[in-house]
Amino acid sequence: MNIKVTESAQDYLAELLAKQEVEGIGIRIFITQPGTPYAETCIAYCKPDEKQEGDIEMPLKAFSAWIEGDSEPYLEEAEVDYATDRFGGQLTIKAPNAKVPRISEDSPLNERINYILITEINPGLAAHGGRVELIEIVDDVAILQFGGGCQGCGMVDLTLKEGIEKTLLERIPELKGVRDVTDHSDTTQAYY
Question: Its domain of life (predicted)?
Answer without folding.
Answer: Bacteria
